[in-house]
Design goal:
This protein is mainly alpha-helical and 184 residues long. It has helices spanning 5-17, 23-28, 48-56, 75-84, 114-124, 136-145, 150-155, 157-168; strands at residues 2-3, 32-36, 42-44, 64-69, 111-112.
Length: 184
C-alpha cells in the first residue's frame, strides 16, 4: 500500500547516474519477484521502490521472476495464502490495517509513508541490519511512528534520522528484526 518516497527518489537518482550503456546490465541484475494471482494478474512481492522509480523515469518493462503461480485460487484463498507467506502488507501510511480490496491496483497508486522512508534511511545509516524477514522495514517504521513526531519527519528529516538511529539501537527495539544495539 505504501512506499518510502525518499527511497524512490534515491533510486531515481541512481538510475539517472547510470551510464547509458549500463542500464541494460542494471535491469538484468534486478529481476522483480512476482506472484501470478487470480485472473492471471501479476502481483509484485518485492522491489516496489525500484519499480516505482523506474516507472517515473519512463522505464515500462523489467525482468520478472515468477515465484509462484496461484492463478487457480479463489480471491479469498489467494489473499489468505499471500498473508500466510508474508507476501502482502495491507497497512496504510498511518500503520493501520486495511482490507485487501483497498490495495492499490498499480505501483503508481501507492502512497508515501514517511516512516518507511525514515526506517530505510536509518538502516542505510547502520542503525539496524538488513534482514530477510518480510516487511522488516515496515516493522521498524511502526516502531519509529510511535516515537518520532510526524511533523519532525516531514519538516526536519536529518534531525528525525539522528533520533531514529538512537532509538533503533536502544534496548526498546531489541525485539525487531536486524536489531544491533546494546542490551541494557
Amino acid at each position: 500500500m505504501t512506499l518510502g518516497m525518499r527511497e524512490v527518489e534515491s533510486k531515481r537518482r541512481e538510475w539517472r547516474d547510470l551510464k547509458p550503456n549500463k542500464d541494460g546490465t542494471f535491469l538484468g541484475h534486478h529481476s522483480v519477484p512476482v506472484i501470478i494471482g487470480p485472473k492471471k494478474r501479476i502481483f509484485l512481492i518485492d522491489h516496489h521502490h525500484l519499480c516505482r522509480a523506474l516507472l517515473e523515469e519512463g522505464v515500462n518493462e523489467v525482468l520478472v521472476q515468477t515465484v509462484q503461480n496461484l492463478s487457480w485460487l479463489k480471491k479469498e484463498e489467494f489473499w489468505e495464502f499471500m498473508e500466510i507467506k508474508r507476501w502482502v502488507h495491507p497497512f496504510d501510511e498511518n500503520g493501520h490495517r486495511l482490507e485487501f480490496k483497498q490495495l492499490p491496483k498499480t505501483i503508481m497508486a501507492m502512497v508515501d509513508d514517511p516512516y518507511r522512508a525514515l526506517a530505510g534511511a536509518a538502516r542505510q545509516n547502520g542503525a539496524f541490519a538488513k534482514e530477510p524477514t518480510p516487511f522488516a522495514e515496515f516493522a521498524w517504521a511502526n516502531f519509529l511512528r510511535a516515537r518520532v513526531k510526524r511533523n519532525m519527519v516531514e519538516n526536519d528529516f536529518e534531525s528525525s534520522l539522528k533520533l531514529a538511529k538512537k532509538l533503533c539501537q536502544s534496548s526498546d527495539a531489541r525485539y525487531l528484526p536486524g536489531w544491533c544495539g546494546i542490551e541494557e
